[in-house]
Each structure stands twice: as structure tokens, then as C-alpha cells.
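Listing 4. Sequential folding, example run.
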Amino acid sequence: MKKIFFICIVSLLMISCGSSKNISNTYKTRKNSITRIENKRAVKTTKKAAGVTIADKIVWTAVTYKGVPYRFGGMTKRGMDCSGLIFTSFKQRNIPIARTSHQMYVQGESISLREVQRGDLLFFKTSRKRGRINHVGLVTSVTNGDIRFIHSTTSQGVIVTSLYENYWKRAFIKAKRVL
């Protein structure tokens, strides 16, 4: 009985070791495929790098904060408010900008929505009590007339939203170019 039990155990070990070889070969093949794909992406990115603007870099920086929770006065991954997101994204790219949305609103050149492009700022009044600007977002893309912007909301933290969602369309005041 002991011999049969021993043979069964050894057989199971040999079978299980044989299957792990196939898994590791599959992993190596998959890893090599991923490496080749990443190398192709690197070549494509390098070719496009010549056309990268400071606005692109600021937007890329801002997008790294997507999903960060809202925190009044916050400027870190632990929590951000809307102007903290903009201020931090600009600061990390060595571009000076005011700290609050109201102060940012004073900066830059007013532009129409038809002129808006990636890197421009959108200003909003979301409170009826205060008669001034209290929210800001950074334009991430303009595609077929849809203006998308990144900002930090009290309910969802840092998100990308369309300007044409009803709430934001009604609260919108002005677009400005600061770059």
C-alpha cells in the first residue's frame, strides 16, 4: 500500500512539473511579444515627440492625478481641489500660475469656445451664493466640437468631463488661454 501511495505522489509531482514548463514557455513568449509591442510604441512615440507642446505635457501631468479624491486646498495625490490640480500640473512643468480659480481667472487671454484647444482653462460659477468664479478645469481634448476637461469635483475627485454635460454647460463662464 505504501508503494502505491509513493508512486502516486511521484507521478503527481512529475505531471505538475511538466505543466509548469509549458506555462513558463508561454510566459516567455508573451513577455517577448509585449516587449516587441512596447518597442514599436517607443519608436512611434519618439517620432511624434518632436510635435509635443508644453500644453501636452501639462495635460499629461494632470491626467496622472485622475482618480485622486477631492480635498479642499489639496495639492497632492492624497487629495486635490480644482485649482490645486491646475496649479500642481503647471508647477511640475515649471510654468507659474496663480493658486486659486478666482486668481487664475484674472490671468490669460479670453477666448471663444470655437478657439479652445488642449491646455486652455475653463472657468465656472457653481455656487449661487458667491458672485464669482469658483471652479476651473484644464482642457484635455477637443474632438468634433466636444470639449473635454480635467478637474476635481467634491463628489468624484479628479475626473475628465465633457463641457456639454448639462451641469457644466450651465455653470460655464469663460475660456482663457494662459500658455
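-- end of first protein; second protein begins --
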Amino acid sequence: MEAVDRECELGGDSRPSRLSDELISLLYKDFREPLFNKVLYLTGHDQQWTEDVVQETLIRAWQHSDTLNREPGMLRGWLLTVAKRIVIDGWRNRRARPQEVELDSSENAETADQTEQSLSALVISEALRYLDGKYQAVIYETYLTGHTVREAAVILGIPEGTVKSRLYAAMRTLRRSLGELGSR
């Protein structure tokens, strides 16, 4: 009933009042540094975790501002107890969960799965075996070694137009062969 009466007095707003905001400002001003130092020790000098714990402690003080004893010694004790419990919960959670590892070095990074590439290369190699030698040579010079049509023509000793037509015919035959191999 008391919570309902208090809610009605606040006009249905369940947030702590302006007085509690002033209390938090005072708590922050008076207790932030000693609280931070104590929590820093408890967290093993983890600066970010310490800041999170201090912030969470002050949020809980703000949420319980209507029930807090305003005496400085009692406030300090309450804040330190809450912070200590938050740190203990954090240590328990870290122990229950596997430690996270940063992937800075390439030795820890996962290597890409090469299975698909290997399988594709195997299938294409099988299909290339069924091509005539002149078509295999054109595909080898253009696709596998990366030469241009002009360079392949010079290497093979044939005109550029012949390289293009053989390449077209070879690719058409390969597509047909790969379609048959894929349906097997």
C-alpha cells in the first residue's frame, strides 16, 4: 500500500524524486573516489570493469534512495557492500563462462574452409580432361596463367581470333560437361 500511496503522490511517476537526484550528486561527489579505489582493487585493476561497477552501484543507490540511511558512515558502508557484491557476481560469471580470446594474431584466426574450392578444382580438372589438346592449351594460357588473348596467341603461335574462337568453344564444351558431371 505504501508504494501505491507514494506513486499517487508522485502523480503516477515511479521515478525517484528530485531529492534523490541531489542525493546521487552528493554521493558521487563524496564517495566516488574512495568507492572507485576500493573497486579497482577488487577487480584486479581492471579500469573499465571498475567504472561499470561504480556506475551500477550509484544506479542502485538512486533506485533505493527512498530507503537509504543518510548518515555518511552508513552510506559508505552500503555503497561498498553493494559494489563488493557486484564484483563477486562478476567474478562468478567470468568463472562460469569461458575466457574470451582476442584474435590479433593470424595463428589464432580460423582458416577459411578450402573444401569447396578443392572440390570445384577437382570437378573442373576432370572436365578439362575430356577437351581436345588445342582447347586445353587455350584455357590454360588464358584462365590458369592469366595471360591476355594477345599474349596467349603469341605463346601458342596462332592468331588472336583463333584463340577467341577456341576459348569460346572450349568454355561451351566445359559448361556442357560440368552440367553432365553435376547431374551424376
